[in-house]
Amino acid sequence: MSAENSEVLNNGIVIIGAGLAGWHVIDAIRAKDKDIPITLVTADNGDRYHKPMLTMAISQKKSAADLVRATGVDAAEAANVKLLANTQVTDVDTTTQQLQLVSAQRSDPANTDYATISYGKLVLAMGAHPIFPKSLPEDLVWHVNHIERFGQLQEKLATGSQHVAIVGAGMVGTEIAEDLLKAGHQVTLIDLNDAPLSQMLPTKATARIAQAVKSQGINFLGGYQVSAITRISDGKLQVSYEALASATDSTTVEPIEPLIVDHVIASTGLTVDDKLPAAAGVEFNRRTGIVVDAPTLRTSTANIYAIGDCMSIDGVPCRYVAPLRAQAATIADDILGHEHSGYEHKPPMIRLKNKAISVMVTGVPQATGNWQVKTESDEELVMDLLNDSDEVSATLTIKLPTIVKA
Questions:
Q1: Which family does the record claim for this protein (predicted)?
Q2: Mean pLDDT in order along the chain per 10 residues (406 residues)
């Protein structure tokens, strides 16, 4: 056994984060080594669930408990993993390869137990968290990036039909809007752009998506910016917003009559917390995440890997579920010292989960670029994005179901 492998065996593997990425790494390692020590550190209880289901679950009347496939305790026992749940990593000492931990199980932080654990290999799988612009105060606004917050929102919405404003019409915001509508709620979807998915798709495509969203009865406010959210006397929320000026005019027009709603959901993008990447000294960007070497998923710091929402490859964040299994398999092989051909990143198919309109994208789409129409009819739109060499770098297919066209 090499000295490096001996250290991994002695100090074990530590994984920070118990989302899909962290559990995939555990599955991949255990498929090849049943006994090497693994410690899973997570700020929550470590329950296993499929996060993409959160944008579809309210209309299906599924609670947070319904979505949990296995509790953290049960999953850890089954995988022979030491679970440190409700625990924060406060520092990483890469010289001694130790982590400093603090338990969140104490009401008085002054009396919280601190501890250190050693690692032979460290996997950062802590995900990304929602961005809250200043106009969206966290104490008044929901997000559905985690099952705990989803569960709290689901309980509120279960009491009857309510008016929900969603800020941000990317994929998640657009999916949630349809889910809430199907559950019987009134929905207003607000975005800076004139149509949903405008940051990733061309105008010809997004115009169709906007039409489909509106045809369902969703109130879509495109080209508007939320300026303030306040709680009013009856417990409802007042959402102030204003129209954005044209590209040639840097000023904004006068504010419009505010919306009065029961809830506001933020779907305004994700960012990666810089605390652990900074402590570990890994190359990092708050917007895109931790930089990794694509074939191995190693970071710039020895013995530290990254996977999932918190990492990026070639400057592009990796925030889709489909590649996680292959990424985890690569990390497992690399940690265990097995020969492997290296991870080859292939952009996954992107599929909007809305029923009102079918949107599928392969490759790496971008809103601007040389998009060429291949097929265009009332029922279907197919476009290719060509790069500078006139090669296809992305393909977009939009289909309108018969029920919507009618």
A1: Belongs to the FAD-dependent oxidoreductase family.
A2: 59 96 98 97 96 94 94 98 94 96 66 80 96 94 94 95 98 97 98 97 97 97 96 95 68 75 96 95 94 97 97 92 96 97 92 95 94 96 96 96 54
Domain boundaries, position 362: 350-405
Structure tokens at 316: 């592009």
**Does residue 181 contact residue 165 with C-beta atoms inside 8 Å?**
no
Which residue among 213, 234, 266 closes a domain? 266
Q: Kindly report the length of the chain.
A: 406
Radius of gyration from C-alpha coordinates of the chain: 23
Q: How many domains does the chain have?
A: 3
- What residue type is assigned to position 286 of the chain? R
Q: Quote the tokens at residue 261.
A: 């709603």
Angle in degrees, CA 398, 404, 406, rounded to 5: 125
205 and 227 in one domain?
yes
Q: How far apart are CA 274 and CA 292, in angstroms?
A: 15
Six token digits for residue 178:
């349809």
Cα 153 from chain centroid (whole Å): 18
